């Protein structure tokens, strides 16, 4: 079992609501005489911090913890994106202090587990207490901090205590903490989430210092920072022989003082984070996108008719979000293939059956918005969020956004780029990731397909900076509906330089301003592009160009690709990231930093994402600054 998954798995097994061991769950002697065994406190974290934590959750989480739940333990964050640790550490500490205060246990508790959880529609938890296994006997107190608000961000999902003192029911709201002893005096459950995503920071505490999660977290962190530093030194400054040796960094907590913090500060982000999304993106040729849109075999383009992607039967699956044009292309897959149901219920899988990587991407809640003849409708986002906009939006031709568009805010995990178009169609932006890199190994070498459950726990931080200089400029495809290199327009064949691109970006913006196109963002893996070729959404030449731009699969290049609609069905632009972690970070960051979950154009996502390196740098500075403190805190908490 992976180190980073161990803690959460320990949690997993305690959650089936059964008590298997009569000895487990007795109150710890220290907790036997508490004046209260549970408490609810509001305002423990600010809404801003909560929102940031949701971003951290969405950009680093893995699935597999429990059905309909994604999670990012502190181990996951330390592994995937350590620069996101500061908000989590801060929050964890605030929760710890609040719990210690509430129960009169100042400085007595160690954090045994901390993790961010996203409970999607259908997620629930039966009656249980949190120390209902013998091996959980060191788990003494529990705290759940709600990061968002019932009724606004998700439906239902009440926390309930089975019996005992009031309160018996807690409605989650942002900043609210429910804390209770983990023993059998606090049997509780979580009612099923009806829609949206219920986000929490869940912490367990122990009176036993040796149960602290800090040492393994710090160890991982140290290892990662060491890796980055040595990689940086080796590859970025090879001339400095003295620096090119791997640094001597203690891997044990308490030895972090061995870090050369100034060197780390100087080097890590420039080399391994990059400036955000590649700055180059291709425009659609004039006229692209005109023609009918077909959604799951139903011609919706430019015509009237209410297209109900979220349940009207025309799209039987959210596969639309995944395969981009696939749902638009013919739909037999969606229906006959027995794939997932709308709203991301049980998901048999897009592409390979049961592939958790794909399921995780689906779980990101990306979805399709199609515009058709003044009608706008959407495929639900996998979180079951009810659409908050009327089905029909009047579509002012030639303007950028229909009334009410600004108010669309269904789920934070959805980044949808869309515009109304006088000619109905939609374009998809894919954040395509070479699957071999999804594990995020920052060293080059043969690509490895990660084991699905560890997806997202790879080391992010491969050089997007480099990628900007190596953008593959490509566009496709024929208008035959099947794609073909022979018909690829000239602009899709020749690489263009960034300068030209800037001008074109402006033009693109202008065109977007005119409301010419509609675009969605989705995230995919590059191997899915092959499937897209088969489906005719992407032409072979395009894939070849993508591959060419990357050199070989071990290179850390990114490609930006825009496809013109195939036969008027759909188009997509692909932003190719070197690994999944980075792709998710960029897209989720864009949503976070703008506080929206939809963008009007690809440019907006791109622009927002550019701020990522600034943000990450800031947070990394914080981490490096606080690391010694945190180490000693961890040291102290673990009784050293
Ligand atoms: O999310 C909640 O409200 C409670 C979760 C819970 O009971 C648990 O994770 O054990
Ligand atoms: Fe629980």
Give the SSE layout:
Elements: H1 3-12, E1 38-41, H2 47-60, E2 62-66, E3 69-73, H3 74-80, H4 85-103, E4 110-119, E5 125-128, E6 141-146, E7 154-156, E8 159-161, E9 169-170, E10 177-181, E11 188-190, E12 193-196, E13 198-206, H5 214-236, H6 261-272, E14 294-295, E15 298-299, H7 319-323, H8 325-329, H9 332-336, H10 356-363, E16 369-372, E17 375-378, E18 416-417, E19 427-433, H11 464-469, E20 473-476, H12 498-513, E21 519-525, H13 526-535, H14 540-549, E22 560-563, E23 571-577, H15 580-594, E24 598-599, H16 602-610, H17 612-637
Parallel strand pairs: 18-24, 19-21, 19-23, 20-22
Antiparallel strand pairs: 1-10, 2-3, 3-4, 4-13, 5-11, 6-10, 6-13, 7-12, 8-9, 8-11, 14-15, 16-17, 22-23
Fe (ii) ion (FE2) binds at residues 128, 130, 188.
Describe the structure.
- With 640 residues, the protein is of the alpha+beta class.
- It folds into 3 domains: 3-212, Sandwich (Jelly Rolls), CATH 2.60.120; 215-272 and 601-640, no CATH class; 294-600, no CATH class.
- It contains 17 helices and 24 strands.
- The strands form 7 sheets. The protein has a 7-stranded antiparallel sheet, sandwiched between helices. A 5-stranded mixed sheet has the order 20-22-23-19-21. A 4-stranded antiparallel sheet has the order 5-11-8-9, with no helix packed on it.
- Helix 3 runs parallel beside helix 5 (214-236), helix 4 packs parallel to helix 17 and helix 15 (580-594) crosses helix 16 (602-610).
- The two termini are 28 Å apart.
**Tally of strands:** 24
What ligands are attached or bound here? Answer: 2-oxoglutaric acid, fe (ii) ion
Oligomer type: single chain
Mean pLDDT: 54
Structural class: alpha+beta
Helix content: 25-40%
């Amino acid at each position: 079992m992976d180190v980073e998954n161990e803690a959460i798995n320990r949690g997993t097994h305690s959650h089936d609501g059964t008590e298997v061991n009569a000895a487990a769950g007795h109150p710890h002697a220290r907790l036997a005489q508490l004046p209260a065994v549970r408490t609810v406190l509001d305002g423990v974290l600010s809404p801003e911090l909560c929102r940031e934590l949701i971003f951290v959750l969405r950009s680093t989480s893995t699935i597999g913890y429990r059905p309909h739940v994604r999670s990012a333990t502190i181990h996951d964050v330390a592994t995937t994106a350590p620069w996101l640790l500061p908000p989590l550490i801060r929050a964890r500490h605030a929760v710890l202090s609040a719990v210690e205060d509430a129960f009169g246990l100042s400085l007595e508790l160690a954090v045994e587990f901390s993790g961010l959880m996203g409970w999607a529609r259908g997620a629930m938890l039966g009656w249980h207490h949190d120390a209902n296994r013998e091996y959980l006997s060191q788990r003494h107190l529990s705290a759940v901090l709600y990061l968002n608000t019932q009724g606004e961000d998700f439906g239902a999902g009440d926390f309930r205590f089975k019996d005992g003192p009031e309160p018996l029911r807690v409605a989650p709201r942002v900043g609210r903490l429910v804390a209770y002893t983990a023993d059998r005096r606090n049997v509780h459950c979580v009612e099923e989430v009806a829609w949206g995503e219920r986000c929490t920071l869940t912490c367990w505490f122990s009176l036993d210092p040796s149960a602290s999660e800090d040492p393994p977290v710090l160890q991982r962190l140290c290892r990662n920072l060491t890796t980055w530093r040595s990689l940086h030194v080796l590859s970025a400054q090879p001339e400095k022989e003295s620096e090119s040796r791997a640094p001597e960094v203690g891997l044990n907590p308490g030895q972090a003082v061995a870090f050369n913090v100034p060197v780390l500060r100087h080097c890590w982000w420039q080399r391994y984070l990059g400036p955000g999304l590649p700055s180059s993106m291709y425009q659609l040729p004039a006229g692209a996108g005109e023609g009918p849109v077909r959604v799951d075999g139903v011609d919706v383009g430019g015509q009237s008719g209410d297209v109900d992607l979220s349940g009207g039967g025309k799209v039987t699956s959210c596969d639309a979000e995944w395969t981009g044009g696939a749902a638009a292309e013919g739909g037999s897959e969606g229906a006959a293939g027995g794939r997932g149901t709308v709203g991301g219920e049980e998901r048999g899988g897009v592409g390979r059956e049961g592939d958790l990587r794909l399921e995780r991407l689906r779980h990101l809640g990306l979805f399709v918005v199609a515009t058709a003849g003044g009608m706008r409708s959407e495929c639900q986002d996998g979180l079951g969020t009810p659409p908050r906009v009327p089905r029909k939006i009047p579509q002012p031709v030639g303007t950028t956004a229909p009334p009410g568009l600004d108010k669309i805010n269904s789920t934070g995990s959805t980044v949808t780029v869309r515009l109304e178009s006088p000619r109905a169609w939609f374009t998809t932006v894919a954040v395509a990731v070479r699957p071999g890199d999804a594990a995020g190994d920052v060293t080059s070498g043969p690509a490895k397909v990660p084991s699905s459950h560890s997806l997202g726990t790879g080391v992010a931080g491969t050089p997007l900076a480099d990628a900007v200089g190596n953008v593959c400029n490509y566009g496709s495809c024929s208008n035959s509906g099947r794609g073909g290199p022979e018909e690829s327009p000239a602009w899709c064949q020749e690489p263009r330089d960034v300068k030209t691109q800037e001008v074109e970006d402006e033009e693109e913006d202008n065109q977007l301003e005119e409301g010419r196109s509609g675009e969605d963002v989705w995230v995919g893996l590059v191997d899915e592009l092959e499937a897209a070729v088969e489906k005719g959404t992407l032409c072979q030449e395009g894939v070849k160009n993508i591959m060419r731009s990357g050199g070989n699969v071990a290179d850390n290049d990114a490609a930006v690709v825009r496809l013109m609609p195939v036969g008027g069905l759909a188009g997509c632009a692909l932003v190719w990231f070197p690994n999944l972690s980075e792709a998710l970070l960029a897209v989720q960051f864009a949503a976070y930093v703008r506080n929206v979950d939809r963008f009007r154009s690809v440019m907006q996502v791109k622009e927002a994402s550019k701020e990522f390196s600034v943000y990450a740098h800031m947070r990394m500075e914080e981490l490096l600054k606080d690391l010694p403190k945190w180490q000693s805190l961890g040291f102290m908490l673990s009784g050293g």
